[in-house]
Amino acid sequence: MLQTAAVSRPAITLSDGQSMPQVGLGVWQTPADATASVVKAAIEAGYRSIDTAAAYENEAGVGEGARASGVAREEIFITTKLRSRDHGYDAALRAFDKSLKRLGVDYVDLFLIHWPAPRQDRYIDAWRALVRLQEEGRARSIGVSNFMVEHLRRIIGETGVIPVVNQIELHPKFQQTDLRAFHAGQGIVTEAWSPLGQGALLKHPVIARIAARHGRTPAQAIIRWHVEQRLVVIPKSANPERIAENFEVFDFRLDDEDMSAIAALDDPMGRMGPDPISFG
Length: 280
Ligand code: NAD
Description:
The protein is of the alpha/beta class. Helix content is 40%, strand content 16%.
């Protein structure tokens, strides 16, 4: 369900009733010592959602930047993620405590299992820990990342608790239509990582043509494509001008012709990141 909380800042309502900003800032590969200033710049540009992870080793900078912005904690949606080596019930609880400490907060808005790591086969116990953290109010919402249909079916079947979000690789070259259809049937919000194909799609001629037609940049055209489809999207940049540019996507629309041209770019082999079956 799409809500327009403010004209320039749409949000998506999760199945647990929480509201999540539709466009957030990703900070994977943002150096730890630059993260606070990057996050502060993003919040000043209008962002209210930051996506980090224990594995990014910059949670402290996220907390510091959020505090330095002067915007109230409850107005900023902070996501962090559980590393695969911390799967298991007790290990997940301990890892969560450490994330909170590094962030300098007493709750996160969204806590995700970063990868299913099926070879370890401990993601069910990790999920039970997340359920407890949500009951305690320390993770307001809980979800997963990089889960495929088989992993989602298992956690739902074994615990009865449906994740509110699955954060997955999703960009014009890898559109994940089957997984998204499964999400829709379960009320799971799809959150797109590497939305710009890690920058590789910005020079694609179809994207460049669509961007030029609208007098926009390729990054804005791609992020708008995500927004049109009611996805949550978390482009990454450490450059304040690009950070601002990537958020200026709420005052134009792509038309049917643009959407069909981008739909045609989908490629089953278009994955750029790791395959969740074998990773972790
Ligand atoms: P992305 O698709 O957001 O691309 C980022 C790159 O695009 C930047 O490094 C920059 O080079 C370029 N870029 C960004 N804005 C630009 C602009 N306006 N003009 C020109 N170039 C621009 O890639 P990403 O970092 O892989 O993904 C975004 C976020 O998704 C990450 O930071 C992270 O938070 C999340 N993520 C999650 C997972 C996961 O396993 N859950 C995996 C990868 C990424």
